[in-house]
Amino acid sequence: MNEQDRPGMVRLLLYMILAAGLAGGVTGWIYAGETFDWVAGLNLPVWVPTQVVITGTWIVMFQLVAMSLWLVQRSGRDGMRTIASILIIGLFVAIFARIYIYFGIQDVTMGFALSLGNWIYALFAIVFIGRANRPSGYLLWPLFIWQSFGLILCFEIMRLNSGAIGVASF
Q: What is the pTM of this model?
């Protein structure tokens, strides 16, 4: 790939703006109306981060994913670049699908199952992406750590709400 075909700083800026907008939009949807009322009615562990911490962390995570996508697309390995780009976009899709289904269906058991699926996919994707472009893979490890924390949190929320209405037993 020659230098003029590689994505430049404008594309990185667009990716980062899009990632921040998506994070803000999803957060706004979660903390508005019926969805927020459902979350407020759940039994939560005392170590749940505040709304500001969760929102801020997701914004940072999405920025890292956007930078990772840009780095992969700048790498010179054509076949690996394409697959790694698809896997990174898949990370975005998996995260948003989990959030939409979890908060849309409002089922903590489903939330845990989806979080577990996301965690497995993220591990697979990050390892492959790291082979395609090492710096890009390094940028995704904080996301994996955050998803690991989220998986533990989802399990604890499921455990605390196992007798609640609308919660299936796992």
A: 0.85
CB 72 within 8 A of CB 132: yes
**C-alpha dist (Å) from residue 10 to 15, 29, 78:** 9, 28, 21
* pLDDT at residue 41 greater than cutoff 70: yes
For residue 156, give the H/E element and its range.
helix 134-160
Tell me, what's the pLDDT at 4? Answer: 55
| Structure tokens, 13 | 């800026």
Residue 33's Cβ-side half-sphere holds a number of Cα atoms within 13 Å equal to 5
- In angstroms, the CA 139 to CA 114 distance is 23
Provide, rounded to the nearest whole percent, the portion of the chain with pLDDT above 90: 51
Residues in the chain: 170
What is the b/e burial string over 11-21, where b = at least 16 CB atoms within 10 angstroms of the residue's CB?
ebeebbeebbe
Element (H, E) at 102: helix 78-105
